[in-house]
Amino acid sequence: MGLKSISLRVSPLLQQAIETAITFLYPAECHVCNGFLGVASMPYICANCWQDVQFLEPPWCDICGTPDVNGRCDDCAISPPRYGKLRSIAFYQTTLQEAIHLFKFGKKKVFAPHLSRLMNAHIPVDCNIPEYDFVLPIPIHKKRLRERGFNQAMLLANGIAKAEGLPVLADALVRKRHTVAQSSLDKEARQQNIVGAFEVRNPDVIRGKRLLVIDDVFTTGATIREAVSELWTADPAEVDVLTLARTLDG
């Protein structure tokens, strides 16, 4: 009898006992604090560190969501972006930064459900998800999709849409040009890097519709601005943006 046949007969209780013993003998460390991870914790990051996530709270800019602003920030007052409003769940630092890094660059898809729940539990007070017709993730190029195995924005969008009973548009906006990773560039280079990277493939589907665009991190806003500008070529009724995180200076 092979090992595979034997393993199939292991009861759930015995399996749990084996995993507990392995964890006791070879305790995993939290990637943030280097403390003991614990058997019942989320993989890679301990429960205590998850308590340190700093969620955004009002006031923020009415349009771009810049923290600690009443009304419009100076940039939006002078040159407002093409989205109606942009909101983010939490700051991109410590625990959340490490989680997104593991999720996105470490290809740890196991983070998707937890991060989606985090988003759903902390939707900004002025972001009414049911009012939208479609949830639409920022797409990645097919080359990067092959490398990573998944689009992190798509997984987050699926979590938001499922919780609110909304449809996800997976192919209305596509990344037609492969670009250098934005995270490796400075602010000016990011804007140049992303120009012309997107294309609307199904304009009739989004014409006259209210769209909520989902992405993982808002940094300089270059990717969001380019994607939203391309979406407006199809004449939607409204385009708003929701991201999981935003950088402290974003």
Strand content: 5-15%
Largest beta-sheet details: 4 strands, parallel
Instruction: Compute the number of strand runs.
Output: 6
Uncertain stretches of 5 or more adjacent residues:
1-8
| Shape descriptor | globular
Read across the widest sheet, the strand sequence of neighbours is: 1-6-5-2
Structural class: alpha/beta
Instruction: Spell out the helices and strands N to C.
Output: HHHHEHHEHHEHEHEHE
Helix content: 25-40%
What's the end-to-end separation, in Å?
59 Å
Cα-based radius of gyration, to the nearest Å? 20 Å
Give the integer mean of the pLDDT values. 88
What is the number of helices? 11
Topology:
Elements: H1 3-7, H2 12-25, H3 47-50, H4 74-78, E1 86-91, H5 94-104, H6 111-121, E2 134-137, H7 142-148, H8 152-164, E3 173-175, H9 187-194, E4 198-200, H10 203-206, E5 210-218, H11 222-231, E6 238-246
Parallel strand pairs: 1-6, 2-5, 5-6
Antiparallel strand pairs: 3-4
Helix pairs in contact: 6-8
Structure description:
With about 250 residues, the protein is an alpha/beta fold. About 35% of the residues lie in helices and about 15% in strands. The protein has helices at about 5, 10-25, 45-50, 75-80, 95-105, 110-120, 140-150, 150-165, 185-195, 205, 220-230; strands spanning about 85-90, 135, 175, 200, 210-220, 240-245. A four-stranded parallel β-sheet has the order 1-6-5-2. The chain has a two-stranded antiparallel ribbon with strand order 3-4. Helix 11 links the parallel strand 5 (about 210-220) and strand 6. Mean pLDDT is about 90; it is low at about 1-10.
